[in-house]
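Risk mitigation, structural track. In case the binding assays with NAI fail to produce interpretable data, a predicted complex structure has been prepared as a fallback.
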Amino acid sequence: MASISRNLRRSLTPDRLRLLHLLSQHPREYVTAECHRPVVLHKRGPDILHDPWFNRGTAFSMTERDRLGIRGLLPPNVVSSQQQIDRFMLDLQRLQKYARDGPSDTLALAKWRILNRLHDRNETMYYKVLINNIEEYAPIVYTPTVGLVCQNYSGLFRRPRGMYFSSDDRGEMMSMVYNWPADQVDMIVVTDGSRILGLGDLGVQGIGIAIGKLDLYVAAAGINPQRVLPVMIDVGTNNEKLLKDPLYLGLQEHRLEGDEYVSVIDEFMEAVFTRWPNVIVQFEDFQSKWAFRLLQRYRKTYRMFNDDVQGTAGVAIAGLLGAVRAQGRPMIDFPKQRIVVAGAGSAGIGVVNAASRTMARMLGNNEVAFESARSQFWIVDAHGLITEDRADVDPDARPFARRKGELGHQGLSEGASLVEVVKKVKPDVILGLSAVGGLFSKEVLEALKDSSSSRPAIFAMSNPTKNAECTPGEAFSILGEKAIFASGSPFHDVDLGDGKIGHSNQGNNMYLFPGIGLGTLLSGARVISDGMLQAAAERLASYMKEEEVLQGIIYPPISRIRDITKEVAAAVVREAVAEDLAEGYREMDARELARLSEEETIEYVKTNMWSPVYPTIIYRKD
Ligand SMILES: NC(=O)C1=CN([C@@H]2O[C@H](COP(=O)(O)OP(=O)(O)OC[C@H]3O[C@@H](n4cnc5c(N)ncnc54)[C@H](O)[C@@H]3O)[C@@H](O)[C@H]2O)C=CC1
Ligand SMILES: CC(=O)C(=O)O
Ligand SMILES: [Mg+2]
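Fallback model:
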């Protein structure tokens, strides 16, 4: 239980103090960690040992073994949960020690297998290991290794995790959702597998990304792992290799399109919101054409958001604001930044939309401001610079197509190459969401040397690692120590000699989506508004201290992800309250939520985050 700090206590009115006291004294009402509540089960014996939610293996005490009918089913030595973890870590670290060739895909997959087996048998311990070693294991359960896991899913599949809905299940989903064992689900991450990271259409194998994202929900946001549900909607695949693969586990037919496709997703949404009306659904890795359409279709009626469009946008905005501050300029100078974006998919357009809105707000939020903000972006896709001259501009990119009038004096034309655009525009920032590894070639980085910025920024945001538009080594070797670098998947910092370090930031939506989900849950907001997303982005931006950004550190290390998530969630709660969207959560009704100060809101979020502690288990006959 989090205690109320002395400083906070001093600053509170008696009313507030009473409320906060309530928060910390009545976990049953405000639920700190369901982990501290006894759990009543109707099963005992080996069934408990085979249930990863409740199993604690050799850490079951003798009285528990007696009470639960498992005495004699475990070796006699009772160990503490720490000893259990030490034994597990020894095994995992042994693997590292004997891996001769340094980090490799094989080693990463071996680590994933070991962690996954632990996940299968003891969830509490799994999350304890993950939370305590998040820097080391996030790259295993999340990008980049999760990409490999999805690619090799047929061979790695042992036990199912999550739910699968397919086109064959049309008409059945409303009853199928009741097959899921948990009566309460807080978070669903759903994918149709059509664009997994930058790896393309992986069909049913994409379930791995939903599982990886939810691992971060538990580790970073403290969502109770019994209340998360990864979902794969299998509407076929257009991946010819998978269509022919005899070991493929999904439907071997081409993807549904048009109204048929939409009707499947509609049916899924109706089913999950019928069983769990308060659930939050995160759409993940849908190909761009559906990402935008489904977002518009559902966002006003359901508690949902699209992580690739909206989460990525917020993380990019926070990083872009960091890059402005790194130049020693105030954030309000953001609208002066010239930004070249490579990639006009769900992520690229999501970033440009939200970043231009942020600029426009800073400029007065009127038509002139929007026009001025728009003109700060140059978007380059697979066919080069997007301009009004293009016959079939994607409707989502159309507002940002460069105008005819602007092109002449810039010396640019429709389809201009990335290097040409960088040479002519001399941008402050190049931002890659293209899924093309190495796109920021030597030539492009050389061209960026003429940037008008004192600290040119390179955001190589595509995943996984091999799809990064460039490496930090390449960026710093060409642009020198002043460059700012961020990538979607993790890279090591670069030693620049003379004690100087080129900081490699991880610019990944993982810094926002857990807090967006948690903040929405705890506010009880019925929808996720642009304002709530903006508040999340701004909190992430302001999280970084002046001295950090001046060193080129624009995102926090992942070791701080739980703390950041708490702050982001609190910002989301407060914005939901301010916009009158909050309906409250459990006993914290909307009125009480509105009375919380900023500090109290943070405390409220903190007390509601689950931590991996073995619960007391009580057996009751049915
Ligand atoms: N760091 C992060 O948090 C996130 C990273 N991403 C990454 O962004 C990438 C793209 O995702 P989506 O937008 O959904 O994919 P998408 O496939 O919809 O879009 C890719 C875009 O890149 C363009 N492109 C292809 N070749 C190009 C080239 N040579 N030059 C310039 N543009 C080119 C395409 O025309 C398309 O507009 C993926 O690798 C994904 O992993 C996505 C979301 C979050
Ligand atoms: C990070 C993420 O969501 C992606 O690469 O799609
Ligand atoms: Mg994604």
